[in-house]
Amino acid sequence: MSSFDQESIVYGVIRHCPAADEFTARLQRRSNWSAVQALPTGIDDEWSLLCREMFSMPGDDQFSGTFQTQLIHFAASYRAVEYEWEHWLAQFEALLKGMYWVSATVHLETELSGKHTFNWNADQGHMPSDAELRMNCEWEREAGFAI
Predict the structure, then answer these.
(1) What's the structural domain count of the chain?
(2) Which of 86, 109, 119, 130 is deepest in the core (most CB within 10 A)?
């Protein structure tokens, strides 16, 4: 089996913090929805590692999944995405730059290099802008030990 036959799993969540008032919160949530809808579809001819089908968003109220915090979750299975990881991160950060959020977490599980967790935090909340994003990464790898 070649290295490109290896499966990679990517999943995570983007958290939008509630706004001071419900009207502003709804506007921000709809803006986030629009940012996700602007992603290409899975059948798009463009070379994109993100597509709108991999994202899911609850409705605007507690009865449809949003009590106070909007959670935008996503997941996808790729063929050895770690070889294109810089491109994946660039596309994900481009999406984040167009959204309202306080934190985002991405989990990357690979057969060859273990598990990685990437976190972005905006203590004051991020508004759509081209501002530089700060990300940290944790790496976890299971290894067998001979006793």
Answers:
(1) 1
(2) 109
